[in-house]
Design a protein that fits this description.
276 residues; mainly alpha; Rossmann fold; N-(1-d-carboxylethyl)-l-norvaline Dehydrogenase, domain 2; three-stranded mixed β-sheet; 8 strands; elongated
Length: 276
């Protein structure tokens, strides 16, 4: 019953669902009784009689631990829906292990903030047994703005959730460098907002993926050598302002790697291939 789980519960109750709740810190579960939930100190008691159990936890270890303790209270045929960001092997292992003992485990990680959980907006990912996915479609769709089905492969949703988080982490760190560079150059944040409101680079992501994954990058729209020149300008500006960039030095090293391999005249997106 963290921020995400609590708002899932409030939204369910608002839609007329009967919800029983549990949290390691009981007071967080108890607080939800004000919204109409019924709180339990023991997780096995919380899941007793429930047709569907939703989990929003930290990691594989916490999911395994909570489910192990909940098992004595699970009714036959109960469906476990796990919204936790976990490893791919963990999601696959739990799907198979719970199926072998007569229960259904479905991984459905999310790109949702607490406000999304309350409003039923955001994105939820799912993959695996398509008959089960179809069975759960209506309920899960009510919990999120869009349910994205990645097909029958168990663990694919877990993989795409990690890929998405990887992008968010890298994007945020790179944005931090952009803010530092703007400060170094005396450009106000209001101007940065104006720039990105008009020129939204997010709209080019699909095209950028297509470009990076091409075999032939010999017809550049922006040469790697020129991109590397600009990268030096970033670094020099920050140094002159006595500030440090975090991500760009690693990018510069990656550019140098590809230039040393003879790709300086190729499209700069070759750096998206890592250090092959």
């Amino acid at each position: 019953m963290g921020l995400l789980g609590s708002n899932f519960v409030k939204a369910m109750i608002k839609k007329g669902e009967t919800v029983q709740v549990w949290n390691r810190t009981f007071t967080k579960a108890k607080e939800l009784e004000k919204s109409g939930a019924r709180a339990f100190e023991n997780v096995a008691d919380a899941v007793r009689g429930a047709d569907i159990i939703h989990l929003t936890l930290k990691d594989d270890e916490s999911v395994n631990d909570v489910l192990r303790n909940a098992q004595p209270g699970l009714k036959p045929g109960a469906i476990i829906i796990d919204h936790t960001t976990t490893s791919v092997p963990g999601a696959i292992e739990r799907t198979n292990a719970w199926k072998n003992i007569g229960f259904t485990y479905q991984h459905a990680p999310v790109f949702m903030a607490p406000a999304n959980a309350f409003e039923g907006s955001g994105f939820m990912l799912i993959s695996g047994d398509q008959s089960l996915v179809n069975k759960l479609d209506n309920q899960l769709s009510l919990m999120t703005g869009k349910l994205i089905n990645f097909g029958p492969e168990t663990g694919r949703a877990a993989a795409l959730k990690l890929v998405g988080n990887c992008f968010l982490v890298g994007f945020t760190a790179a944005l931090g460098d952009s803010l530092t560079l703007a400060e170094s150059l005396g450009a106000p944040i209001t101007d940065l907002n104006t720039l990105f409101a008009s020129w939204n680079p997010a709209t080019s992501i699909s095209a950028r993926i297509k470009r990076i994954t091409q075999e032939d990058l010999s017809k550049p729209s922006w040469e790697l050598n020129m991109a590397r020149k600009d990268t030096n300008l970033f670094l020099s500006a920050a140094k002159n302002a006595e500030k440090n960039l975090t991500v760009i030095p690693a990018v510069a090293a990656l550019m140098d790697h590809w230039i040393s391999k003879g790709h300086g005249g190729d499209d700069w997106t070759v750096i998206g291939k890592g250090q092959l």
